[in-house]
Design brief:
- The structure is a homodimer.
- Helix content of chain A is about 40%, strand content about 15%.
- In chain A, helix 1 packs across helix 2 (about 10-20) and helix 1 (about 1-10) crosses helix 3 (about 30-45).
- Chain A has 3 domains: about 1-45, Orthogonal Bundle (434 Repressor (Amino-terminal Domain)); about 60-160 and about 295-320, Rossmann fold (3-Layer(aba) Sandwich), CATH 3.40.50; about 165-295, Rossmann fold.
- The longest helix of chain A has 17 residues, at about 70-90.
- By secondary structure, chain A is α/β, with parallel strands linked by helices.
- The interface between A and B is large, with 56 and 57 residues.
- The structure holds a DNA duplex.
DNA sequence: TCCAGCAGATTAATGGATTTATCAACTCTG
DNA sequence: CAGAGTTGATAAATCCATTAATCTGCTGGA
C-alpha cells in the first residue's frame, strides 16, 4: 500500500480510503480516486486482509460447520445464507464436522478459528447439544448460531425450520391418501425424544385422525444405512406392517427405499414413502420421491441474520422459521393404499 | 497476550514462544512454560490469528473452491486433503463456486480472499480453463492448484486422477460382459474434446476390441438433468441403440437412469449402465450402480501436497494420480446383454 | 480585509503476535 | 580466576491497513 501511495503521489491513508471505499473523515476528489485506482491496477496491489482484520477486528468471514458437506438439505440452507452474505460482503467458509474431530478430541478448527481474527462467528449444525466444540465456543463468548430447534434447558441461540408442521404435513399426506397404518423412521436417536418437534408432528397427525400409534410407529435410528435397513425390516416383520412410511429426513430416503425394494415390496403399490425435506435429487429417483418442502433457504438466511446480530453485540433470540409453510410435493412414491395387500416375497 | 505476560510475570515474547510452541531463539524453562500455560488457561486468552497471519504472512488456511459442494466425488477428494491438512495443522475452507459468482462478474471471494492474509492458497475444481477467477489468481501469483487433467497449452498446475484408464476400464467392463453397442454420455461439452482423457479411454477400449464407434457414441452434454435426459433419448432413437452405456460421471447417473426407466427400458436387462467414479450412494439405488472406483482421495491429498510446495515457493508440476489403479465395482446395473432385445415401450 | 468553513489530503497512533538482537546470570574449563 | 559458552529471558522492530486528529489552501460572506 505504501508502494501504491508513493507511485500515485499520495499518502497511504488516501489509498486505504480508496480501496476500502471511503473511510473515516478522509475525503477524496474523484480525480485522485481514479489515479489511485489506476495505480492499484498497475502495481497489482492486493489488500492484506490479515492487517485489515487485525486493525478493524472484523474478518468478514463466517465459518459454517455441518456434519456432511454433501447433505443437500443443508446445501439449500447455505444458499439462503449466501444471499445475505453476498449483500453484506461476507465470505462463508464451509467445513465438514467430521474433518475437524481428530482422535476423539475436538479440533484444530477450534484452536485455529475460534481465536479472533480469522472468523467472526460460527453457524453450526449439530443434532446434539452435548457437542463439546459448541459448548466450548459459547463458553468463550464466540458468536454462534445452531441450525436446530432450540434445546430445552439450554440457552444456545438456535435457528431452524419448524419440524412439527412439516412432519405433520407428511403424515397427513399419507392419511389423506387413505393410509391407516403409518410409521416414521430415521433421525439420530437423541434427536427424537418424545417431545421433539418431529415426533410431536407425527403424533399430532395420527391423533387427529384417530389412527393407532404403537411403540413401533416411530423408529429413531440415525442415518446410517445399516440402521435404516434394519429399521425397515423390523417394520415389515410386524403383524400389521405399515402401508405408509414417513422418512424423517430425505437424506435417509435412499437407504430406506433400497431396503423396501429388497424386501420385494413395490413403491407406491405396496408401500407409500414420503420424505421430510425436499431436494432436487428426490425427483431423479424411480419411483421419484414425494417430499415435504420446508423453508430451508429462509432458515439459513435467518440463521446468518441472527449471527450477524450476535456479532454486532445485539441481543438475539432463537427462531423457528415457518414462512413459507410446509408444502407437500407429491411425486411417484405415494399413492392410495392398494386393497389387496401384497405379501413380502421373502 | 500482554495481559497474560503481565500476569505470568514474563514478557510477551515468552508468551508467544510458549503459545506457538517455541519460536526464534527464545529458550524456555519448563517451569516458566507451565506457569504461562496456566495463566493462558486462567485468563481465557485466545490467540489472535489476524495478527499472527499479518506477522508471519502465513494464515494456515487453504481455500477449496468446487462447483457444487454436494458433489460426492469431490467430497472424497476433500477427505484426502483433510488427512494431510490435519497433519500440517491447516484448515480447509470450502466454497461453492456458484456462491461466488455475482452478476456474471467474479466474486467477492476474489477480492476478499485472494489478498494476502486470509488464505495461503487455492485448490480449485474447474472443468474449463477459461475460468476468469483462475486466470486472475494465477496471474497475480497466488498459489493455486486445479483439480483436473492438465489443460493443453496452459501451464496451470493441475492434479487429478487419470481419467483415461478409468473410463477405459468402464468400457472394458461392458465389453467383457459381451456388449457390442456401447455409448458414452455426460461431461461438460468443453471437457470432452476428441483428445481429452475420457474420450481417449473410451475410444481406446472400443478400438482394441474392434467395436464400432459412430458419431453418436460419445455425447458430451453437461450434467444438467434436461441435457442428460435428451441425450439418453437420442441414443435410443438411433437405428441400433446401445446395450451398454458409460455415464462419464456418477453425479450424472441419477438423471441418466431415470430417463432410461422412463423410456420403459429395464436396467440391466435391456441396458447396462456403468458410471465413472464411485460413491457410497451408488450402492443405494435400485438397481444399484456399477462404477469405476478411482484414487480420488489420493488425488486430493496429492493436490494439497502440491499446493503446499507452491506456497513454500518450491517448483511444482502437474500430476495425474494413477495409484491405486481404477477398479470396477460391479453392482446390479451391469449384466450381459440379453438375446431378445426389448423394444422401447413408448 | 479578515475569518469561518470546507474540500482535500496527511500524520501518526493503533491492533496483536513474531522474531532478531541483546542482555544478565550462571557454569565450566584450563 | 578470567574468559568462553550456555541458559533463560527481554526489548524493540516489524507486518500492513485503518482512522482520529491535524494541517493546508481556498472560497464566500460580512
Amino acid at each position: 500500500m505504501r508502494e501504491v501511495a508513493a507511485k500515485a503521489g499520495v499518502s497511504v491513508a488516501v489509498v486505504s480510503a480508496v480501496v476500502s471505499g471511503g473511510s473515516g473523515n478522509v475525503r477524496l476528489s474523484e480525480e485522485t480516486r481514479q489515479r489511485v485506482l489506476r495505480t492499484v491496477e498497475a502495481t497489482g496491489y492486493r489488500r492484506n486482509h490479515a492487517a485489515r482484520a487485525l486493525r478493524s477486528s472484523h474478518a468478514g468471514v463466517i465459518s459454517v460447520v455441518i456434519p456432511r458437506v454433501t447433505n443437500a438439505v443443508l446445501a439449500r440452507a447455505m444458499e439462503g445464507m449466501q444471499q445475505l452474505a453476498q449483500d453484506e460482503g461476507l465470505v462463508l467458509m464451509l467445513t465438514d464436522a467430521n474433518w475437524i474431530v481428530a482422535d476423539g478430541k475436538v479440533s484444530n478448527l477450534m484452536t485455529r478459528l475460534s481465536g479472533t481474527g480469522i472468523v467472526d462467528g460460527f453457524i453450526v449444525r449439530t443434532t446434539s447439544v452435548g457437542n463439546e466444540a459448541v459448548a466450548d465456543l459459547t463458553a468463550r463468548g464466540v458468536p454462534l448460531v445452531i441450525l436446530h430447534e432450540p434445546f430445552p434447558g439450554h440457552d444456545h441461540v438456535c435457528v431452524w425450520v419448524d419440524d412439527e408442521p412439516g412432519v405433520r404435513a407428511a403424515a397427513e399426506h399419507l392419511i389423506e391418501l387413505g393410509h391407516e397404518h403409518i410409521a416414521m423412521i430415521g433421525g439420530p436417536r437423541h434427536d427424537i425424544p418424545d417431545d421433539a418437534a418431529r415426533s410431536r408432528g407425527f403424533r399430532a397427525a395420527l391423533a387427529e385422525h384417530d389412527l393407532p400409534l404403537t411403540s413401533q410407529s416411530i423408529l429413531a435410528v440415525g442415518y446410517g444405512e445399516a440402521e435404516i435397513a434394519a429399521a425397515i425390516r423390523k417394520l415389515f416383520q410386524a403383524a400389521t406392517p405399515p402401508t405408509g412410511i414417513v422418512v424423517d429426513n430425505v437424506v435417509a430416503a435412499p437407504a430406506a427405499m433400497a431396503t423396501v425394494v429388497d424386501l420385494g415390496l413395490r413403491v407406491p403399490d405396496d408401500v407409500s414413502v414420503i420424505a421430510y425435506h425436499d431436494i432436487d435429487a428426490a425427483g431423479l429417483t424411480r419411483p421419484s420421491l414425494s417430499t415435504v418442502k420446508m423453508p430451508v433457504e429462509e432458515a439459513g438466511r435467518k440463521g446468518l441474520e441472527t449471527l450477524l446480530r450476535l456479532i454486532a453485540g445485539e441481543p438475539a433470540e432463537s427462531v423457528l422459521v415457518s414462512d413459507p409453510p410446509p408444502v407437500v410435493i407429491q411425486r411417484q412414491s405415494t399413492a392410495p393404499p392398494s386393497r389387496t395387500r401384497h405379501r413380502r416375497r421373502t
